[in-house]
From TrEMBL:
Region named 2-C-methyl-D-erythritol 4-phosphate cytidylyltransferase: 1-229
GO-annotated biological processes: isopentenyl diphosphate biosynthetic process, methylerythritol 4-phosphate pathway; terpenoid biosynthetic process
KW Lyase (keyword) present: yes
Involved pathway(s): Isoprenoid biosynthesis; isopentenyl diphosphate biosynthesis via DXP pathway; isopentenyl diphosphate from 1-deoxy-D-xylulose 5-phosphate: step 2/6; Isoprenoid biosynthesis; isopentenyl diphosphate biosynthesis via DXP pathway; isopentenyl diphosphate from 1-deoxy-D-xylulose 5-phosphate: step 4/6
Cofactor(s) listed in the protein's UniProt record: a divalent metal cation
Membership in a protein family: In the N-terminal section; belongs to the IspD/TarI cytidylyltransferase family. IspD subfamily.
Catalytic activity: 4-CDP-2-C-methyl-D-erythritol 2-phosphate = 2-C-methyl-D-erythritol 2,4-cyclic diphosphate + CMP; 2-C-methyl-D-erythritol 4-phosphate + CTP + H(+) = 4-CDP-2-C-methyl-D-erythritol + diphosphate
Gene Ontology molecular function: any one: 2-C-methyl-D-erythritol 4-phosphate cytidylyltransferase activity
Transition state stabilizer, annotated site positions: 15, 22
EC number: 2.7.7.60, 4.6.1.12
Protein name: Bifunctional enzyme IspD/IspF
Site note Positions MEP for the nucleophilic attack, residues: 157, 210
Source organism of the structure: Protaetiibacter larvae
Role of this protein: Bifunctional enzyme that catalyzes the formation of 4-diphosphocytidyl-2-C-methyl-D-erythritol from CTP and 2-C-methyl-D-erythritol 4-phosphate (MEP) (IspD), and catalyzes the conversion of 4-diphosphocytidyl-2-C-methyl-D-erythritol 2-phosphate (CDP-ME2P) to 2-C-methyl-D-erythritol 2,4-cyclodiphosphate (ME-CPP) with a corresponding release of cytidine 5-monophosphate (CMP) (IspF).
Interval of the full protein contained in this chain: 8 to 236 of 389
Length: 229
């Protein structure tokens, strides 16, 4: 196994408006974490899977992971996260196995991200010559710059994209970037770029949207319902 994927699931998910941490909220009777891990364990690339869970829910996350992994459970590690996403990723990076030379970082909240997206990112990192890799989608909506409630400018969207996870990196460079970059970044590509590296895009997947609001949860419910037939 040469590739690891760190699945961060330690957020509280307050914007979802549920009592439970987001990864344990169910979509069609199955937790967000379990949905995400079905995609991860469906990848063709053999993976070390590192799940980063809220400290109080590590055992529950391990049970979910073992259930999905089945015979691949030997490649599963579950650790407790931190109080920011970046700290949670760092906790996952601390348990990379020997022999891993590339690392993907993935949000559990992107519960319906397909396995094919993971394989696409793995391939791009392998051929990317040291660059990081992010899945990207063209912007659909027109974008404005505002000051309070006033529009102060138009933004040309033709060279803008929105980015998703999993994001992939060569192991040594990612660990060095995590060791050297202090401030909090919203994604790993930003942290990697801050350390002076280039970032490539691969085509993203609409299904890899992040479940953040009750509306996203409702959308995920309908998508899973439709695919269950
Ligand atoms: O809050 P947001 O949806 O942006 O979080 C993105 C991902 O990062 C989620 O899967 C969440 O569980 C994870 N996260 C984490 N530790 C934190 C904050 C967020 O693992 N402290």
């Amino acid at each position: 196994v040469r590739t690891a994927i760190v699945v961060v699931a330690a957020g509280s998910g307050t914007r979802l408006g549920r009592d439970e941490p987001k990864a344990f909220v169910e979509v069609h009777g199955v937790s967000i974490l379990e949905h995400a891990l079905r995609g991860v364990f469906g990848a063709v690339e053999p993976l070390q899977v590192i799940v980063v869970a809220p400290a109080a829910l590590v055992a529950r996350a391990r049970a979910i992971g073992e259930h999905v992994a089945g015979a691949a459970s030997a490649h599963l590690t579950v650790v407790a996260g931190g109080d920011t996403r970046q700290r949670s990723v760092a906790a996952g990076l601390a348990v990379l196995a020997d022999g891993i030379d590339q690392v993907l970082v993935h949000d559990a909240a992107r519960a319906l991200a397909p396995a094919s997206l993971i394989d696409r990112v793995v391939h791009a990192v392998r051929t990317g010559g040291g660059d990081g890799v992010v899945p990207a989608l063209a912007m659909i909506d027109t974008v404005k710059r505002v000051d309070g409630d006033r529009v102060v400018g138009a933004v040309d969207r033709s060279d803008l994209v929105t980015v998703q996870t999993p994001q992939g990196f060569p192991r040594a460079q990612l660990l060095a970037a995590y060791a050297s970059v202090a401030d909090d970044h919203t994604d790993d590509a930003a942290l990697y770029a801050a350390a002076g590296h280039g970032i490539l895009t691969v085509p993203g997947e609409p299904l890899a949207f992040k479940i953040t609001t009750p509306w996203d949860l409702a959308r995920a419910e309908r998508l899973v319902d439709a695919s269950d037939g």
